């Protein structure tokens, strides 16, 4: 047990949720990207920096919406994970935004490591990756094994007990047609 109201969430379950939500966010980026392609064709200018910022805002809006409403993105629902504050309550707006920003910084370090490895050789990429490994390694030192973005934002992931069957069968009501 995690000491709270659920089970500890393992790394594979977290990654499964990240991949699921990442695919959904990628689909949103593709729709927005189509708009940027159309604008670029009309104006003759590529708006790459604006598109990058827009993509970051789309990802934030997606995660912010779900985290502050139900505590679960669609990927988190699939993997029976819920996001809570340290007291077990719902996450507030500041916590959701801070969690996103710290997680974003960690992913940008990964991209920096890839870029440095490509441009300046593997040693530069390894050096940049060391910062990320250190941040992930900090979770091993935390008493509740919180990742850096959960630790700094005052949130935690909780694994919910497995539910059997669809929700409408558990509630005893027939599905709506």
Describe this structure in words.
The chain is mainly alpha-helical and 177 residues long. The chain has one domain (11-162). It is built from seven helices and two strands; from the N terminus they run H-H-H-E-H-H-H-E-H. It has helices spanning 11-43, 48-69, 74-78, 93-120, 122-141, 148-153, 167-171, and strands at residues 81-85, 155-159. The protein has a two-stranded antiparallel ribbon with strand order 1-2. Helix 1 packs across helix 2 (48-69) and helix 4 (93-120) runs antiparallel to helix 5. The longest helix is centred in the N-terminal third of the chain and has 33 residues, at 11-43. The model has no long low-confidence stretch (mean pLDDT 83).
Give me the secondary-structure topology.
Elements: H1 11-43, H2 48-69, H3 74-78, E1 81-85, H4 93-120, H5 122-141, H6 148-153, E2 155-159, H7 167-171
Helix pairs in contact: 1-2, 2-4, 4-5
Estimate the helix proportion, in percent.
Answer: 55-70%
What's the gyration radius in Å? Answer: 19 Å
Number of strands: 2
Strand order of the largest sheet: 1-2
The share of residues in extended strands comes to: 5-15%
Keywords:
67% helix, 7 helices, single chain, mainly alpha, globular, 2 strands
Q: Gist?
A:
The chain has 177 residues and is mainly alpha-helical. The protein is 67% helix and 6% strand.
């Amino acid at each position: 047990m995690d000491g709270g109201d659920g089970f500890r969430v393992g790394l594979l379950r977290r990654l499964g949720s990240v991949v699921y939500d990442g695919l959904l966010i990628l689909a949103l980026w593709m729709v927005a990207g189509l708009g940027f392609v159309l604008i670029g064709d009309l104006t003759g200018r590529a708006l790459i920096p604006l598109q990058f910022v827009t993509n970051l805002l789309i990802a934030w809006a997606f995660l912010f919406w779900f985290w502050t409403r139900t505590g679960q993105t669609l990927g988190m629902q699939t993997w029976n994970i819920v996001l809570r504050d340290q007291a077990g309550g719902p996450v507030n707006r500041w916590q959701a935004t801070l969690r996103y920003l710290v997680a974003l910084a960690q992913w940008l370090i990964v991209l920096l490591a890839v870029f440095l490895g490509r441009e300046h050789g593997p040693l530069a990429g390894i050096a940049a990756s060391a910062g990320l490994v250190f941040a992930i390694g900090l979770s091993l030192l935390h008493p509740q094994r919180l990742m850096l973005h959960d630790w700094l934002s005052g949130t935690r992931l909780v694994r919910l007990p497995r539910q059997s069957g669809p929700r409408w069968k558990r509630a005893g009501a027939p599905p709506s047609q």
